[in-house]
Every structure is written in C-alpha cells, then in structure tokens.
Amino acid sequence: MKVNETWMNSFLFNVMLILLSSVSVTQFVAQAFSQYTRLTTIDLIFGTQIRYMKFFRFFFDNQIFEYALFIWSIICGLYLLLRPREQINVEKEVDKRFDL
After folding, report:
1. Which of 3, 42, 78, 90 is deepest in the core (most CB within 10 A)?
2. What does the alpha-carbon distance between residue 12 and residue 7 come to, in Å, rounded to a whole number?
3. What Cα–Cα distance (Å) separates residue 77 from each residue in 1, 17, 59, 70?
4. Cα 22 from chain centre
5. What is the distance between the alpha carbons of residues 30 and 66, in angstroms, rounded to a whole number?
6. Cα dihedral value 36, 28, 24, 17, nearest 10
7. Are 28 and 65 in contact (CB under 8 A)?
C-alpha cells in the first residue's frame, strides 16, 4: 500500500477478505492439529459447539469445509500460474519518483 494512493473501498475489501479467511484457516488448523489443540478453547468452540449445531452438522460430517479450502487453493494456484503479477521496472519507478 502506498500513502495517499490507496482507495478506502479497496482497503476495506482487503480487510473483509482477511477477516473471512481467518475463521476458516483457524478451523482448518485446529482440526489439522487436533492432537495439540486438545482441551483448549478452540477445540471446545470448533470441536464441540459449532460441529453439532443443526446447520453446520451436514458440513462437518461430509468435510465440506476441508474440500472447499482445498479446491479454492487449487483455483488460486492455477490463476497465479496462468496470470502472474506484472513485473515493474524498479529503477525507472525510483527515477520517476525522485526526478533523477
């Protein structure tokens, strides 16, 4: 991010993406390392309370969350392979900024 060059709606959208993904990543890590999270608060929240709620029970029983995370990772990886980030000539950018 650059000072005075980042739009507020872009910033808020990025924050929203981070907030949405943090819950799913926390759930995935808590389940992946269940031996280490045993008898902790996160195990109580994801392992007991959320897992047996009526709405989420189907998703946990069929491992929908894990498959969705895996498929999304594959899609993002393919996208980044096919459309890599644009390369910026750093020297020209520095010269332009400092009027050299």
Report:
1. 42
2. 9
3. 23, 17, 24, 11
4. 6
5. 12
6. 100
7. yes
Burial of 53 (0-12, 13-18, 19+ CB in 10 A): exposed
38-80: pLDDT as tens digits:
889 988 888 888 888 888 889 888 988 888 888 988 998 999 8
| Cβ pair 29, 47 in contact under 8 A | no
Q: Can you say how many angstroms the Cα of residue 58 is from the centroid of all Cα atoms in its chain? A: 23
Two tokens at 50? 């959320």
